[in-house]
């Protein structure tokens, strides 16, 4: 309850600050929309000529991409921890976090949220509805609920992986390029995993399970029954990965050395 | 009851050094060389409620590291810490509600938002009721004279203005214990005096316990009855400030400015009959003699020195606290 109220306080403050820089906000919204549009055009161009890719047709691939955008948007709204090492460890901002009576990870989430990334949800839904109608998919009463569960699972997986990466900084604050690399790997989850070889498929399923953010859950809505098992694992994987990340974070905080002056 | 109870507290930092060359880099992959630095070395400390303790020491003595362990930011390597009856890093979230922290080198406030918005968020974070906030913070804001700053974003404040706001922010929940790490760093004399006055006031009114580090001994003289002196991670003095002054030297200090370069052995040679310590002064050819003795000795020393070396200026001072502390840093405690 306390955490909810604090979350809303921070969110309100965030919006208030954003509103007061109105020009910036407008520019950013426009560039965000442009970015999404370019993404969409890219997809249409790339898949424009392929009609079938390993048994997946063009609309299905577009649908998967649309689905992927939704958990990804939630992840990027709340888990801006790609610069955690720089910002909190090297600069010692973690000191301040640790003197406040809120769980440190939660504080970083609410401090660094970027709510405008939520627009990705809209883009994702538009794409899904477009592709869905092309495919003649029908909406069942339970679909919205399953969708919510899958989206949360996907966002948790993303969050879990990136929290683990951020937590590594507690042990070693040397600079690595692992974060940008991981963003790239994350993109592989947007495409059907069976187009990759066995090893990559295994990695994307069990090690860095980005496939659970795109193909697997989307397969459920596409009625691809052969993937249902994986599809329903999505929320489970989400919870497992976030839990691992949480414990790893807590262990890391104990190792925090602070920044020497 | 003791607010702070520290027994055998120690913090070690490991720093890795890399070997040179490709071969070295390869070996580093398997076994890394590291050095262990003991930043805080088995200290014990007890502080009672309502005390104002000055925690002093040279750069790198381990002051900030101690404070970070007492506030739950760092996990100690060894030792027991109980602050406000709790183990700081074990029950961190519950514990930090009972303390206030200010790091002079670092801002606690949100950079882009107005000061009062920061206060409002912190009020929610610390679950301070409207009534408590009204009665307590009104007073704090008035005493620190920050009313006109409240609607400005922190990034637009001067250092002195910001620091007063930082102090106010640390007191939103009216904590019984306050840790201040260099709260007066870089401030002008007027702001320093304002802050000292304010700290005295809250200590008197709420019996707030305060542990502060500073490099300005005037802060300590104005505020603290008790000083804890830290050197290379060890406590070398813990007691009253006036005892320290009394036990050290009640001597005098003579600043000689010579016309020609002079070296230490030469000075020591001519003054070997007197209880004197020589130190290079700030200016060229300036030497400072600290003498532990009667006025008579002082005048004898002065005449001996002037007999051997031509001087351009000479000044006679009483030893300041600053000087005492400096001597202790340089030579360790032996008179005290
Ligand atoms: N995160 C860290 N990693 C490695 N060494 C550190 C770290 N923090 C502090 N140290 C070392 O520990 C020692 C004590 O540092 P500390 O910051 O506690 O000193 P201090 O007394 O606060 O000094 P100052 O007066 O300069 O603030 C120093 O030698 C410092 O280099
Ligand atoms: Mg320090």
Automatic annotation (TrEMBL), chain A:
Protein name, as recorded: ABC-2 family transporter protein
Keyword check for Membrane: yes
Keyword RNA-binding: no
Pfam families in UniProt: ABC2_membrane_6
Residues annotated as transmembrane: 25-49, 61-82, 115-133, 145-171, 199-221, 227-249
Keywords, alphabetical: Membrane, Transmembrane, Transmembrane helix
UniProtKB/TrEMBL annotation, chain B:
GO molecular function: ATP binding
Pfam families reported in the protein's UniProt record: ABC_tran
Domain of life of the native organism: Bacteria
SMART domains assigned: AAA
UniProt keyword terms in alphabetical order: ATP-binding, Nucleotide-binding, Transport
Claim: ATP-binding is one of the keywords in the record: yes
Matches recorded under InterPro entries: AAA+_ATPase (IPR003593), ABC_transporter-like_ATP-bd (IPR003439), ABC_transporter_ATP-binding (IPR050763)
UniProt domain ABC transporter: residue ranges: 24-257
Record protein name field: ATP-binding cassette domain-containing protein
Species of provenance: Evansella tamaricis
């Amino acid at each position: 309850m306390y955490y909810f109220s604090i979350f809303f306080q921070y969110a309100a403050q965030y919006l208030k600050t954003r509103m007061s820089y109105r020009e910036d906000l407008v520019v950013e919204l426009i560039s965000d929309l442009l970015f999404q549009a370019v993404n969409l055009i890219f997809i249409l161009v790339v898949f424009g000529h392929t009609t079938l890719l390993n048994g997946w047709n063009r609309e299905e691939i577009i649908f998967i991409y649309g689905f992927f955008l939704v958990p990804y948007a939630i992840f990027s709204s709340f888990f801006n921890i790609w610069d955690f090492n720089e910002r909190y460890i090297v600069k010692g901002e973690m000191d301040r976090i640790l003197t406040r009576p809120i769980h440190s990870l939660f504080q970083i989430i609410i401090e660094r949220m970027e709510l405008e990334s939520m627009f990705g949800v809209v883009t994702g839904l538009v794409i899904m509805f477009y592709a869905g109608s092309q495919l003649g998919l029908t909406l069942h009463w339970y679909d919205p609920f399953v969708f919510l569960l899958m989206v949360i699972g996907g966002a948790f997986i993303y969050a879990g992986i990136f929290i683990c990466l951020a937590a590594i900084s507690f042990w070693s604050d040397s600079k690595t390029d692992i974060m940008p690399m991981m963003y790239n790997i994350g993109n592989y989850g947007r495409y059907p995993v069976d187009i990759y070889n066995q090893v990559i498929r295994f990695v994307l399923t069990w090690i860095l399970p980005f496939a659970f953010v795109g193909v697997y859950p989307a397969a459920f809505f596409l009625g691809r029954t052969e993937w249902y098992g994986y599809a329903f694992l999505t929320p489970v994987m989400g919870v497992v990965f976030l839990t691992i990340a949480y414990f790893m974070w807590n262990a890391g905080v104990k190792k925090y050395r602070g920044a020497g002056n | 009851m003791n607010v702070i109870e520290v027994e055998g507290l120690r913090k070690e930092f490991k720093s890795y050094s890399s070997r040179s060359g490709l071969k070295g880099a390869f070996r580093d992959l398997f076994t890394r060389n590291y050095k262990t630095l003991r930043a805080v070395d088995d200290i014990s400390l007890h502080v009672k409620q309502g005390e104002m303790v000055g925690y002093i020491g040279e750069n790198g003595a381990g002051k900030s590291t101690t404070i970070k362990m007492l506030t739950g930011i760092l996990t100690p390597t060894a030792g027991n810490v109980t602050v406000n009856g709790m183990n700081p890093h074990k029950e961190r979230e519950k514990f930090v509600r009972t303390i206030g922290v200010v790091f002079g080198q670092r801002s606690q406030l949100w950079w882009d938002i107005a000061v009062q918005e920061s206060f409002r968020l912190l009020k929610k974070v610390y679950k301070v009721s409207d009534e408590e906030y009204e009665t307590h913070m009104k007073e704090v804001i008035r005493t620190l004279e920050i009313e006109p700053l409240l609607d400005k974003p922190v990034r637009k404040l001067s250092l002195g203005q910001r620091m007063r706001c930082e102090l106010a922010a640390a007191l939103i929940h009216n904590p019984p214990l306050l840790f201040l790490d260099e709260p007066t760093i870089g401030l002008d004399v007027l702001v320093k005096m304002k802050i000292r006055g304010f700290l005295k006031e809250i200590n008197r009114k709420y019996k707030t316990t305060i542990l502060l580090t500073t490099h300005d001994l005037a802060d300590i003289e104005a505020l603290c009855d008790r000083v804890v002196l830290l050197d290379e991670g060890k406590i070398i003095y813990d007691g009253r400030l006036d005892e320290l002054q009394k036990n050290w030297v009640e001597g005098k200090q003579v600043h000689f400015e010579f016309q020609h370069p002079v070296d230490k052995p030469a000075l020591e040679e001519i003054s070997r009959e007197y209880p004197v310590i020589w130190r290079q002064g700030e200016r060229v050819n300036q030497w400072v003699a600290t003498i532990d003795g009667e006025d008579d000795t002082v005048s004898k020393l002065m005449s001996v020195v002037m007999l051997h070396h031509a001087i351009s200026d000479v000044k006679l001072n009483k030893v300041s606290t600053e000087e005492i502390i400096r001597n202790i840093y340089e030579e360790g405690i032996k008179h005290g």
